[in-house]
Specification:
Length: 379
């Protein structure tokens, strides 16, 4: 291939990335994309069209009569080949069903179309057929917004890239270096912050036992020195909604995002964000603590500071299942998930995370988060 084809033929499936990546690659970007769509994939086609049009690629949708009937598929594709005779066309056979790919490739050979496949493990385009050019890496171009749009998700409130003040960074360093001794009082602070939030308030009363706790008092002084809260006798007041969120666990999200930001150049991170809110076509909302694009893949990190072993608390197993499901729905099969937890998990929970392909960085491992991230992204 010496130049980009005028048209891409795309087989629409639930995995948008394999169609989206080559269509937006500078060396392959077509003027137009024709989407071959089964009755079950209309919503996915709509999401793909939205991204392509926004990035300057015209689209046409061709509905397939029956994706389970090889002869019907060939007829649909033959009609398309007749309409497009003489045009420079490339067929992407990565998506769709196997039957769709076989029918499309048989027509492509007869019509003289170029044919390629995207190897999602290596991010390479493989051209098929005789005298095909060598495989090559796709250019890393995708931003978070377009990637998420390709899977039918809309961003609420835009993309946030938060910064922390120096004294808040000092607090975060203290929390990480003293994980063992601060685990219990931090659980109490989480509970207090959640209680205030549940009542729609920015203040909460300490009970006598909490007032007598020296470890809690020492922790609250650290947060007070960082400008997060104020202590007046038995009354604990947060200095605004953002500071309440910071005390409730947002500090760990800041640490994770700050570490990701420091590694942006080294790991080739293309785009990153914290506290993303996305909604699907049914207006179901998902919150993503930290998200970034690297190697044309979506990486999602869930951050937890609260205890997950109390009856009223979200269980670690539930958190892991939820994260695995979000990875599958929001970004497809190539998406990777990580749980960053201030507290260690039990052996059974660690085995579940491994089975769900969720990376873990827990307890004292958070101090070495940069090493963990490097190994995770490069794997």
């Amino acid at each position: 291939m010496t130049h980009a084809p005028g048209t891409h033929i795309l087989l629409v499936s639930a995995q948008a990335a394999a169609n989206l990546l080559p269509a937006l690659d500078p060396q392959m970007k077509p003027a137009e994309a024709v989407l071959l769509v089964s009755s079950k994939m209309q919503r996915q086609a709509e999401a793909l069209e939205h991204v392509l049009r926004e990035t300057g690629v015209k689209t046409q949708r061709v509905m397939l009569d029956n994706e389970h009937d090889f002869n019907a598929l060939e007829r649909n594709l033959l009609d398309l080949a007749t309409q497009r005779e003489g045009q420079h066309i490339a067929l992407n056979v990565t998506g769709g069903t196997k039957l769709m790919a076989l029918a499309a490739q048989s027509i492509a050979e007869a019509a003289g179309w170029d044919v390629f496949y995207v190897d999602v493990d290596t991010d390479e385009v493989i051209w098929l057929g005789k005298n095909a050019p060598p495989r090559r890496k796709l250019t890393e171009q995708l931003r978070l917004r377009h990637y998420l749009m390709g899977y039918g998700y809309r961003l609420r409130g835009g993309i946030q890239r938060p910064q922390v003040a120096p004294r808040q960074q000092t607090l975060i360093d203290t929390l990480l270096m003293q994980i063992g001794s601060l685990e219990k009082p931090l659980a109490q602070l989480n509970w207090l912050a959640q209680s205030a939030e549940d009542k729609g308030r920015l203040d909460v009363e300490l009970d006598p036992q909490q007032q007598d706790s020296r470890s809690l008092e020492a922790l609250l002084r650290h947060f007070e020195d960082a400008g997060v809260l104020r202590i007046d006798g038995a009354r604990l007041s947060f200095n605004g909604k953002n500071q309440l969120d910071f005390a409730k666990g947002g500090w760990l999200e800041h640490h994770v995002f700050h570490t990701v930001s420091r590694l942006t150049g080294e790991l080739g991170i293309r785009d990153k964000a914290a506290n993303l809110e996305v909604t699907d076509a049914n207006d179901v909302r998902n919150e993503l603590d930290v998200a970034f694009m690297a190697r044309n893949r979506l990486f999602l990190i869930e951050c937890k500071t609260a205890r997950m072993d109390k009856p009223e608390a979200p269980k670690a197993n539930d958190t892991l299942f939820k994260l695995a499901e979000i990875c599958r729905r929001v970004g497809g099969l190539g998406t990777r998930g990580m749980l960053a937890s201030y507290r260690s998990l039990r052996d059974a929970e660690k085995r579940l995370a491994q089975a769900l392909n969720i990376e873990l960085v827990c307890g004292a491992e958070l101090v070495r988060l940069d090493e963990k991230l490097k190994a995770w992204v490069r794997r």
